[in-house]
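Re-run with default settings, no changes from the original entry. Doing this only to confirm the output is reproducible before filing.
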Amino acid sequence: SCCGYWRRLNKAGMELLLEFINNHPMLALGCVGFFLLAVFNELKIKEANICGLSTTDSVKLINQNSLIFDIGPAERYAQKHLLGAANKKPEDITEEGLSKSNKKNKPVLLVCDNGKVSKKLSLKLRSKGLDNIFYIKGGQTEWENASLPVSSLAD
């Protein structure tokens, strides 16, 4: 019967696999390691894409009355920043601080120069259970490249 053929084939295949692993343990371990590395990398990319927003999606979030924190240098903030953004140091944005200042649990948008620092901080805060934290992919640079408004010294 058909099922008997597949059972014999599966048994033979399993025996071959075990023989290969016994004969080449380092190669087999390397394959398992690369597989786990690929899975971990994909999960990390997926997690970053959950909280990383395009400029268009960031505008939508801002229109929902979100809190905006510019975590870039104070000098750059003084020159230009997103409208409505408050300048804070990354180390000053904590789980405890957000729970006190954000009692209505509004979405929080983090922005820095190029998106790297805000991405790292948003992932750190999300790992502590705050799932309403987002960042702009590409940071303020991407925001300005999209010709979106910023507040500047000239205002």
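The radius of gyration is 24 Å. The first strand starts at residue 52 and ends at 53.
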